[in-house]
């Protein structure tokens, strides 16, 4: 992961980062579920 990140950011920035979290892409069902929850909140 750091190989990809180091191609996009300068070392000065990367030295300030303490930790990193890798997120996996959301699937279609997860996106629908999130949208449904948000629409329910909006309707209230």
Automatic annotation (TrEMBL):
<dbReference type="GO" id="GO:0005524">
    <property type="term" value="F:ATP binding"/>
</dbReference>
<dbReference type="GO" id="GO:0006508">
    <property type="term" value="P:proteolysis"/>
</dbReference>
<keyword id="KW-0547">Nucleotide-binding</keyword>
<keyword id="KW-0067">ATP-binding</keyword>
<protein>
    <submittedName>
        <fullName>ATP-dependent Clp protease, ATP-binding subunit ClpB domain protein</fullName>
        <ecNumber>3.-.-.-</ecNumber>
    </submittedName>
</protein>
<dbReference type="GO" id="GO:0005737">
    <property type="term" value="C:cytoplasm"/>
</dbReference>
<dbReference type="GO" id="GO:0034605">
    <property type="term" value="P:cellular response to heat"/>
</dbReference>
<dbReference type="InterPro" id="IPR050130">
    <property type="entry name" value="ClpA_ClpB"/>
</dbReference>
<dbReference type="GO" id="GO:0008233">
    <property type="term" value="F:peptidase activity"/>
</dbReference>
<keyword id="KW-0378">Hydrolase</keyword>
<keyword id="KW-0645">Protease</keyword>
<dbReference type="GO" id="GO:0016887">
    <property type="term" value="F:ATP hydrolysis activity"/>
</dbReference>
């Amino acid at each position: 992961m750091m190989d990809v990140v180091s191609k996009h950011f300068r070392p000065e920035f990367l030295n300030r980062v303490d930790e990193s979290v890798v997120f996996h892409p959301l699937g279609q069902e997860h996106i629908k579920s999130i949208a449904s929850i948000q629409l329910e909140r909006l309707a209230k």
